[in-house]
Specification:
By secondary structure, this protein is mainly alpha-helical. The chain is built from 11 helices and no strands. The chain is globular, with a radius of gyration of 21 Å.
Length: 263
């Protein structure tokens, strides 16, 4: 579903022709600023879909992995959050371009263009981007900070889940010890955590697909169906966690989730 939505034709709500817009506003290192911004919506959604698909493959293993599902889920959330950042259907074309420029600056910084041993070609490309944007009166866009974007994408659990997943991705000794020891002591720990990671990644991915679908005026039927499936399995998972805690003698401080009768 995410790949299908990513391949929808580009559309800018307030621009009748993206090529004509770019012919008027592009130039220098960025001849097609609006098309570039639109491409990022596709690229980030395709990337997020890759990670979610890979997570699904890991869930089919007889013995789920301990670490890799968390890393995949974190990447899916990051890609999804940046997809939503640049695909907001309420943004003006100029705001979308400004956000795309922020993503490019982040990319250049990650490649170390300001360091003495930086790639000369990247330095030249970054200069061209900076020169182009400095000559335009683009609106100031919020910076694409991962933690903030994921929290905005999923206010109920984004910040908490991202922090947990980052501990695995960054080889945090405490997170690593807890995950491995728990997996050794509890036979269902890997399964439990893998499903938790997959649900969070799917949640972020479906929301990103919805944002792109709205931007491009696509059919939301499949996206809505996937969102309903996520809510169903989220309830099933929360029921499982609640029942497991009770079996262990732990009294949850929240009522047992109930699945709608038609499920």
């Amino acid at each position: 579903m995410m790949s299908a939505v990513a391949q929808l034709p580009y559309r800018e709500p307030t621009v009748s022709n993206i090529d004509e817009y770019d012919a008027e506003h592009g130039g220098g290192a960025i001849p097609d600023p609006l098309l570039t911004a639109q491409r990022y919506t596709r690229f980030y959604l395709l990337g997020a879909g890759d990670f979610v698909f890979s997570l699904g493959k890991l869930l089919s293993l007889e013995q789920p992995m301990v670490m890799s599902p968390a890393v995949l889920a974190r990447s899916a959330a990051e890609y999804s959050s940046r997809c939503v950042y640049v695909s907001d259907p309420t943004d003006s074309p100029e705001m979308r371009i400004s956000k795309a420029m922020n993503l490019c600056r982040d990319g250049f910084n990650d490649h170390g263009v300001g360091k003495p041993d930086a790639d000369p070609e990247l330095i030249e490309l970054a200069k061209g981007f900076n020169d182009w944007s400095s000559q335009r009166s683009l609106p100031k866009a919020p910076l694409p900070n991962y933690t903030n974007l994921i929290h905005q994408l999923s206010p109920e659990m984004g910040r908490r889940e991202y922090q947990r997943l980052s501990g695995v991705a960054h080889a945090n000794a405490i997170t690593l010890s807890g995950a491995v020891i728990s997996a050794q002591l509890e036979s269902d720990h890997n399964v439990d955590q893998s499903w938790r990671n997959a649900l969070f990644a799917s949640h972020c991915g479906v929301l990103a697909a919805m944002s792109v679908c709205l931007l491009r005026d696509g059919d939301l039927t499949q996206v809505s169906s996937c969102f309903s499936a996520f809510k169903h399995y989220e309830l099933k998972y929360n029921q499982f966690v609640w029942d497991r805690d009770v079996e262990r003698g732990i009294t949850p401080d929240w009522p047992r989730p109930t699945v709608p009768a038609d499920d």
